[in-house]
Structure formats: structure tokens, C-alpha cells
User: Which sequence fits this backbone?
């Protein structure tokens, strides 16, 4: 999850100022979360993470449909949606934020970024500060980040592992390519309405 905040940070800090005044960037990436030790691992993968940033304001929004996560077996996927995430009620996880710090671009075309915002999972919003790396490739970028999420922070029941213990934390990783885009008027309006308190 949400991590996306970073994607915005990076873009905003690395794009020439003339573009940063008017450019909008968009991406669809992959999110993987894992909970538990290797022998009792719970792992879900979604390739439907969406990101949008308005470079006039530096604000951004990231979301992923909960039902887009796929698991090793159908039973695990059913329990994830029905028992733990209640995806019929809480359909998306979102991360909305603002860039707060950016580092210089290295000789390898990489830059470290830090962003802060609100991560909402299972209907519970939490303030988060997340760091990541932006890697340049031609005229596009790729955002890479990983961070932990405590299930109790979002009122999610800890799933039982084969060891009999519950997994209290999930580790989230994001990989998202970012490209310039011309959004439709509704996308522009949505980006500009983002509020960070």
C-alpha cells in the first residue's frame, strides 16, 4: 500500500521544473504483501495498483482494489476477502499524500525520496511516512518501495499461521512504472481536491 506516496515524491523532484508546473504522471504497478515465516507464508499479489500525481500541487493518490489480490489457493483468497478484509464493504486501499523530501539523482539514475500521507486500509486511516527509490529508464521512471503494515493499526484480524500463531504484521512492496499522461477532466479535478492535513 499503499508506498506510492514515494512514487509521487520521486517524480516531482526529478522532473524538469517546466514539466513539474503542468505535468501529470500515471502508473499501474504490482503490490505484493507477505505475512508469516517462510514455512507458513501468507502471500497476496495484485497487478492493479493505480497511481496519479498532479505536479502543479505535488499531491498524489494511490489505490488498489482489494479483490485484485491473488493467492496460492482459492481458500486463502476467499478468507482474505470475506474474513480478514471484508472486501465487499471496504473495496479499496488508498494512499494519499504529499512530497516532503527528495535526494539527488545518482550516477545510476536513482534517487531516494520521502513522502508523507494517509494510508487507509479496511476503512481505517493512519498517517504514514514512507521512503523509496525512483529509477530512471529513458523517459519513464520506476518506483520501488517496501514497508511494514501492522494489522492492528487497521483493525484487521491477524490470520492464523500453520504454527498456530497469528501474523501481526504484513510486509508490503510496490513496483510501479510511471509515465507522463494527459488525464481527463475528472482525473484532474480528483487530484486537485486531495487534501493533506
Assistant:
Amino acid at each position: 500500500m499503499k508506498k506510492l506516496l514515494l512514487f509521487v515524491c520521486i517524480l516531482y523532484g526529478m522532473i524538469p521544473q517546466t514539466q513539474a508546473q503542468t505535468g501529470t504522471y500515471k502508473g499501474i504497478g504490482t503490490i505484493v504483501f507477505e505475512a508469516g515465516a517462510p514455512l507458513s507464508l501468507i502471500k497476496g499479489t495484485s497487478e492493479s495498483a493505480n497511481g496519479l500525481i498532479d505536479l502543479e500541487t505535488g499531491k498524489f493518490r494511490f489505490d488498489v482494489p482489494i479483490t485484485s489480490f491473488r493467492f496460492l489457493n482459492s481458500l486463502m483468497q476467499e478468507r482474505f476477502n470475506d474474513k480478514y478484509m471484508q472486501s465487499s464493504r471496504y473495496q479499496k486501499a488508498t494512499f494519499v499524500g504529499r512530497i516532503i523530501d527528495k535526494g539527488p539523482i545518482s550516477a545510476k539514475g536513482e534517487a531516494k525520496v520521502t513522502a508523507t500521507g494517509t494510508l487507509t486500509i479496511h476503512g481505517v486511516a493512519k498517517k504514514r511516512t514512507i521512503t523509496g527509490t525512483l529509477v530512471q529508464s529513458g523517459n519513464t521512471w520506476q518506483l520501488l518501495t517496501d514497508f511494514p503494515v501492522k494489522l492492528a493499526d487497521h483493525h484487521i484480524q491477524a490470520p492464523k499461521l500453520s504454527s498456530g500463531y497469528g501474523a501481526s504484521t504484513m510486509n508490503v512492496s510496490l513496483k510501479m512504472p510511471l509515465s507522463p499522461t494527459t488525464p481527463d477532466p475528472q482525473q484532474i479535478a480528483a487530484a486537485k481536491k486531495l487534501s493533506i492535513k
Strands lie at 24-35, 42-54, 59-65, 92-102, 110-121, 124-137, 140-150, 169-181. Confidence is low (pLDDT under 50) at residues 7-22.
